[in-house]
C-alpha cells in the first residue's frame, strides 16, 4: 500500500479494525501496511481507541510484548441497545403478525440486514467474554441472526438441519420433543461441520418452551461439545415451564389470540 497522509491512514486503520473484530493485529502489520514507524502507529491507535470508547463503538485492547498488538472488541452500549429493542417491540406488537396456532410472523424483520446487524452486535456484546469457537443455529429463520452475531464475534457458523442433506456427507441425527406442540421431530448435523469438544454459542430467533434449543444441546453431546451460551431474539411469556432456563433474551412477547393483540417488552438481558 502506498504511503498515506495521517488523516487517510486513520480512516483506513479504523476500517481495517472494524472488519476484523476479536482478531489480534500486530503493530508490525500496520507499520508495514502504511510504511510508518511503530511509534506513529501507536499514536494513531490511541486516537482510535479514544473515539471508539467515547462513542460506544467498542474497546480497543492493547497487548504488550513481542507477540503483542491490538484487538477490537465490538460493544453495544446498554442504553442504545434498550432503545433499539423498544423500537423492535413496537414492530412486534402489530396484530397482523399473529398466525394460526399463535405463531408469530417475523420473516420481514429477520430479512432486514440493518436490523439483524444491530441485533447481532448486541448478542456479540452479551457474549463477548465467553470462550466460543462457533455460533450454532437451526434452519431456517435463525440463520440471518446467527451470521450477524458471528460477524461481530469473528466466528464460523454451524447450521443444524431439519433433514439430512446428501451434499453434507455423513451426519449425526437425533429425535427431540418440540416444546410447543410436543411432537417428535428430527434434527441433524454433518460430522464435518463441528469439531469434537467445540465451545458453542446457540442463537435462535424465537423460543417458546425451548424444545428446539434443548434438542441442539442434546445434539452437541454427540460431538462432546459444550454450550457456552444461548441467545434468543424473542421469547414467549405464555409458557408455564421451560426446558431451557439459562439463556439471554432480547424481547419478551405475550399473545392474546382472542383479542388478537400482542404485547412485547425488553427481555431478560435488560433485567
Mean pLDDT rating: 93
**Range of helix content:** 25-40%
Portion in beta strands: 25-35%
Number of strands: 12
Instruction: Name the helix and strand elements from N-terminus to C-terminus, one letter apiece.
Output: HHHEEHEEHHEHEEEEHEEE
Termini distance? 48 Å
For the report, how would you describe the main beta sheet? 6 strands, mixed
* Structure classification: alpha/beta
Number of helices: 8
Tell the overall outline: globular
Domain Phosphoribosyltransferase: 109-243
Subunit structure: Homodimer.
Family: Belongs to the purine/pyrimidine phosphoribosyltransferase family. PurR subfamily.
Domain Bacterial purine repressor N-terminal: 5-74
Strands, helices and their partners?
Blueprint: H1 6-18, H2 27-34, H3 38-55, E1 58-63, E2 69-74, H4 78-92, E3 98-99, E4 103-104, H5 107-110, H6 113-126, E5 134-138, H7 143-153, E6 157-160, E7 171-177, E8 184-190, E9 199-207, H8 211-221, E10 226-236, E11 248-256, E12 261-266
Parallel strand pairs: 5-6, 5-9, 9-10, 10-11
Antiparallel strand pairs: 1-2, 3-4, 7-8, 11-12
Helix pairs in contact: 2-3, 6-7
Can you give keywords for this protein?
271 residues; alpha/beta; Arc Repressor Mutant, subunit A; Rossmann fold; 2 domains; 6-stranded mixed beta sheet; two-stranded antiparallel sheet; 8 helices; globular; DNA-binding; transcription regulation; transcription; WH-like_DNA-bd_sf
Amino acid at each position: 500500500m502506498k504511503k498515506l497522509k495521517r488523516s487517510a491512514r486513520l480512516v483506513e486503520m479504523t476500517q481495517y479494525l472494524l472488519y476484523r473484530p476479536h482478531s489480534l493485529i500486530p503493530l508490525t502489520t500496520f507499520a508495514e501496511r502504511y510504511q510508518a514507524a511503530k511509534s506513529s502507529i501507536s499514536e494513531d491507535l490511541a486516537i482510535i481507541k479514544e473515539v471508539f470508547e467515547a462513542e460506544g463503538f467498542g474497546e480497543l485492547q492493547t497487548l504488550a510484548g513481542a507477540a503483542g498488538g491490538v484487538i477490537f472488541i465490538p460493544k453495544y452500549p446498554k442504553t442504545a441497545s434498550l432503545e433499539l429493542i423498544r423500537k423492535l417491540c413496537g414492530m412486534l406488537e402489530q396484530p397482523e403478525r399473529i398466525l394460526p396456532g399463535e405463531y408469530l410472523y417475523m420473516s420481514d424483520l429477520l430479512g432486514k440486514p440493518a436490523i439483524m446487524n444491530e441485533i447481532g452486535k448486541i448478542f456479540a456484546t452479551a457474549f463477548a467474554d465467553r470462550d466460543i469457537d462457533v455460533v450454532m443455529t437451526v434452519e431456517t429463520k435463525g440463520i440471518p441472526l446467527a451470521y450477524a452475531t458471528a460477524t461481530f464475534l469473528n466466528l464460523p457458523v454451524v447450521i443444524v438441519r431439519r433433514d439430512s442433506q446428501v451434499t453434507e456427507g455423513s451426519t449425526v441425527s437425533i429425535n427431540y420433543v418440540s416444546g410447543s406442540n410436543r411432537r417428535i421431530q428430527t434434527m441433524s448435523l454433518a460430522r464435518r461441520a463441528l469439531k469434537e469438544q467445540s465451545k458453542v454459542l446457540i442463537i435462535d430467533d424465537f423460543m417458546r418452551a425451548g424444545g428446539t434449543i434443548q434438542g441442539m444441546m442434546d445434539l452437541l453431546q454427540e460431538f462432546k461439545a459444550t454450550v457456552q451460551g444461548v441467545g434468543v431474539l424473542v421469547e414467549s411469556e405464555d409458557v408455564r415451564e421451560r426446558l431451557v432456563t439459562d439463556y439471554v433474551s432480547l424481547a419478551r412477547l405475550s399473545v392474546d389470540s382472542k383479542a388478537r393483540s400482542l404485547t412485547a417488552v425488553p427481555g431478560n438481558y435488560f433485567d
